[in-house]
């Protein structure tokens, strides 16, 4: 099917891809970004990664957004003789925290889970040991290790290069996500990547010196990642127990976090709008690029994006794109099956749709069909699983296929080959020739839990567009997993059958690495003294890759893993397409995403939109993720056995070319600025005096628009803190939390009088 341009037709009901027709990404330092924002002829639209550095006042036409950038920790020197006891360590951490001088972008917060984590409600009552109270002491103030950020230290703080007591460190959230298994390239991220308890474990577990503490933390973390809990109450208690195990020894503690401030132009003519801001990656996200539009264009226009810092990572979708610039590039050209929702820890369907099956909600064994395919460890060969195999979950996907940018049509081999790569390069160890530790980390969940994959059918749908009809292909694939959860979305995120890169480009990269010409990852490139594989910016590598393409076009090469799915003639045709593509474009970054690489230099990367009607995702698909509404708790009160919560809604309203935030009572007829109804999700957590979560549940909306908590009849007698929050359209970030102290009488199921109430705006 030949690509069709839609640039000239304003009347089409469906318009492929997203708003800007060209995106230009430029590495800029903060001073350069400040200058380009006031460029009179071609101003910068947005600066991603940090704040520009202005010599004077910030221009009035600029606005900014905030997101969680990093966590700030204090770690105790394990060699300090003064801090051998837990009591001394806790005291030192408390004193060190008191010696900090927080700049405007730093929030003092002595707990590893912050309001920018979607699981904050279950931890909002907690404080870290050693920082809840500051009792006077005669002990000398601890000495900080040299090298700490001086802006975080008060003038009285003592600093030493050798004989130090505590180290003040800052760890970016993106680094924590990578350590937790998120690759930010072609591999799916673990479902819980943005959760606070995951990042707390990743950050604090390495500091535990005692084997018993490490074992306890590992056991709790394993139960959470393997869904070994009955309900949300037990899940919260496991999360809280995990954090307690991580901070209980006072060897490392989170004492605050830093916010990232990113600027964009809100100018009447040259400004941008419709921004979706991720709570943890800010404007460096795939959803931002799929919602942002220029004010002067309903669609179309050239978007100019600055990025900091300058790129350093290689461009390959297997183990590259690992720096900030690379992630932004991949978000532009790649198109993962699911995309992270900006304002919670869930994911939105992009190129994969989940279908409910008879086995979906039943937590029992599911038979894996004999002819389902499974990659073999080490070789990666896709072979039938055979008889007598089972799984605990089955996920049915409908996949939105489209052509790749070299003209090849997506087939089953493209969807399944990433599984073969995961098992071939992720299994084994350093003594295995086909192994890369970074691929192993990114694919661990796939290899642990995949039990089989089967193509059910390929559906075809005709869509009339203007005076033409286009046919869309939808592969339907079953994936079998060992993953004990009732959460359909979590199952779907483990191992989706998807690839943004065709099998022949993946096979080309694999052959290059196998022949010792390059390495997939930065770590392996350094260890083996090889180039880091790059499909675009290294002329010497491109020359080598082009020679391999010509060789494979002659022989009809296809990897052994695909021998059941791809014949020699089909393979020859693929290699010939790729040869023509690299000849015409000068690079090998072939994807099926919404933008294609058009030009590049050290100073700019230019991408052009795909206005091809085989591309199945169109304008407006993700607009509901821009400008999320937020609930503000206006009152919490007791009425007999019930707790009543009142709330207002805060949301953006468009006025001509501007947006302003308004506040209104939250009622069923309250509409967002897009005139869409606001959907509230309400949750409560009841915490006992022993620090355990005693009950969790949802609030029920009443006819008078208030929300009511009806405590479970099984709640034991005693004193409880009840925390309640309302998430509008799923927005769980920086929530307003209503709090009330309850005394439950000895009679089961009935509660006594409330002793205090407060609403946190």
Summarize the structure.
With 761 residues, the chain is of the alpha+beta class.
Write up this protein:
By secondary structure, the chain is of the alpha+beta class. It has four domains: 163 residues, no CATH class; 191 residues, Dipeptide-binding Protein, domain 3, CATH 3.10.105; 258 residues, Dipeptide-binding Protein, Domain 1 (Dipeptide-binding Protein, domain 1, Alpha-Beta Complex), CATH 3.90.76.10; 133 residues, Sandwich (Immunoglobulin-like), CATH 2.60.40. 23% of the residues lie in helices and 28% in strands. The strands form nine sheets. Strands 1, 2, 3, 4, 7, 8, 11, 22 and 23 form a nine-stranded mixed beta sheet that branches. Strands 24, 25, 26, 29 and 30 form a five-stranded antiparallel beta sheet that branches. A hairpin with a 6-residue loop joins β32 and β33. α5 runs antiparallel to α6 and α13 packs across α15.
If you average the pLDDT, what whole number results?
91
CATH architecture of the largest domain: Alpha-Beta Complex
User: What name does CATH use for the topology of the largest domain?
Assistant: Dipeptide-binding Protein, domain 1
Number of domains: 4
State the name of the first-level CATH class of the largest domain.
Alpha Beta
- Give the low-pLDDT segments: 1-12, 128-136, 748-761
Radius of gyration: 27 Å
Report the span from N to C terminus: 55 Å
List the total number of helices. Answer: 16
Task: Give the strand tally.
Answer: 33
- The CATH homologous superfamily of the largest domain: Dipeptide-binding Protein, Domain 1
Range of strand content? 25-35%
Q: What is the general shape?
A: globular
Structural class: alpha+beta
* Helix proportion range: 10-25%
Report the major sheet: 9 strands, mixed
């Amino acid at each position: 099917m030949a690509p069709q341009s839609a640039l000239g037709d304003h009347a089409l009901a469906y318009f492929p891809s997203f708003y800007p027709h060209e995106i230009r990404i430029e590495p800029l330092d903060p001073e350069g970004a400040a200058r380009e924002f006031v460029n009179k002829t071609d101003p910068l639209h947005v600066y991603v990664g940090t704040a520009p550095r202005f010599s004077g006042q910030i221009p009035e036409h600029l606005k900014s957004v905030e997101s969680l950038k990093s966590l700030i920790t204090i770690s105790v020197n394990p060699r300090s003789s003064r801090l051998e006891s837990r009591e001394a360590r806790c005291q030192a951490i408390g004193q060190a925290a008191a010696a900090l001088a927080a700049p405007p972008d730093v929030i003092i917060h002595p707990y590893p889970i912050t309001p920018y984590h979607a699981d904050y409600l279950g931890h909002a009552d907690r404080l870290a040991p050693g920082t809840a109270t500051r009792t006077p002491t005669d002990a000398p103030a601890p000495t900080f290790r040299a090298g700490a950020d001086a802006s975080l230290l008060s003038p009285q703080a003592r600093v030493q290069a050798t004989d130090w007591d505590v180290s003040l460190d800052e760890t970016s959230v993106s680094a924590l996500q990578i350590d937790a298994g998120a690759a930010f390239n072609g591999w799916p991220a673990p479902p819980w990547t943005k959760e606070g308890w995951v990042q707390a474990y990743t950050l604090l577990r390495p500091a535990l010196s005692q084997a018993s503490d490490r074992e306890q933390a590992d056991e709790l973390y394993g139960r959470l990642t393997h869904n070994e809990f009955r309900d949300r109450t037990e899940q919260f208690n496991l999360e809280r127990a995990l954090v307690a195990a991580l901070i209980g020894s006072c060897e490392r503690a989170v004492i605050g976090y830093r916010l990232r401030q990113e600027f964009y132009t809100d100018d009447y003519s040259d400004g941008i709008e419709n921004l979706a801001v991720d709570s943890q990656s800010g404007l460096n996200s795939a959803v931002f690029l799929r919602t942002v539009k220029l004010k002067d264009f309903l669609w179309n226009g050239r978007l100019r994006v600055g990025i900091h810092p300058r790129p350093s990572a290689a461009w390959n979708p297997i183990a590259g794109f690992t720096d900030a610039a690379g992630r932004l590039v991949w978000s532009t050209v790649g198109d993962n099956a699911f995309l992270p929702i900006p304002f919670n820890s869930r994911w939105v369907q992009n190129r994969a749709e989940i279908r409910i099956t008879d086995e979906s909600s039943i937590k029992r064994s599911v038979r894996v069909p004999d002819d389902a395919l499974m990659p073999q460890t080490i070789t990666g060969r896709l072979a039938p699983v055979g008889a007598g195999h089972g799984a605990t979950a089955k996920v049915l996907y409908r996949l939105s296929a489209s052509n790749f940018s070299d003209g090849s049509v997506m087939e089953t081999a493209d969807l399944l080959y990433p599984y073969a790569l995961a098992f071939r390069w992720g299994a084994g160890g350093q003594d295995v020739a086909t192994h890369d530790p970074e691929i192993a980390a990114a694919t661990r969940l796939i290899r642990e839990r995949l039990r089989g994959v089967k193509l059910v059918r390929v559906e075809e749908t005709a869509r009339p567009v203007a005076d033409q009809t286009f046919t869309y292909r939808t592969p339907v694939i079953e994936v079998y997993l060992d993953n004990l959860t009732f959460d359909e979305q979590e199952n779907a995120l483990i191992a989706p059958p998807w690839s943004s890169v065709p099998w022949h480009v993946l096979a080309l990269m694999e052959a290059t690495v196998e022949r010792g010409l390059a390495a997939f990852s930065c770590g392996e490139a350094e260890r083996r003294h090889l180039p880091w594989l790059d499909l675009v910016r290294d002329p010497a590598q491109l020359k080598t890759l082009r020679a391999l393409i010509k060789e494979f076009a002659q022989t009809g090469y296809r990897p052994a893993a695909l021998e059941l799915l791809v014949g020699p003639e089909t393979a020859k045709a693929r290699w010939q397409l790729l040869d023509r593509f690299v000849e015409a474009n000068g690079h090998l970054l072939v994807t099926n995403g919404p933008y294609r690489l058009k030009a590049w230099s050290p100073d700019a990367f230019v991408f052009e939109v795909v206005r091809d009607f085989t591309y199945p995702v169109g304008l407006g698909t993700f607009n509901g993720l821009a400008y999320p509404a937020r609930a503000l708790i206006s009152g919490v009160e007791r009425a007999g056995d019930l707790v009543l919560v009142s709330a207002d809604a805060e949301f953006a309203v468009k006025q001509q070319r501007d947006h302003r935030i308004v506040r209104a009572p939250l009622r069923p007829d309250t509409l967002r600025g897009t005139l869409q109804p606001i959907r509230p999700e309400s949750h409560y957590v009841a915490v006992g005096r022993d620090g355990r979560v005693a009950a969790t549940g949802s609030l029920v909306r009443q006819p008078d628009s208030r929300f009511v908590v009806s405590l479970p009849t099984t709640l034991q007698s005693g004193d409880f803190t009840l925390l309640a929050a309302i998430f509008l359209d799923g927005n769980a970030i920086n929530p307003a939390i209503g709090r009330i102290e309850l005394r439950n009488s000895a009679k089961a199921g009935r509660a006594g009088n409330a002793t205090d109430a407060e609403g946190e705006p």
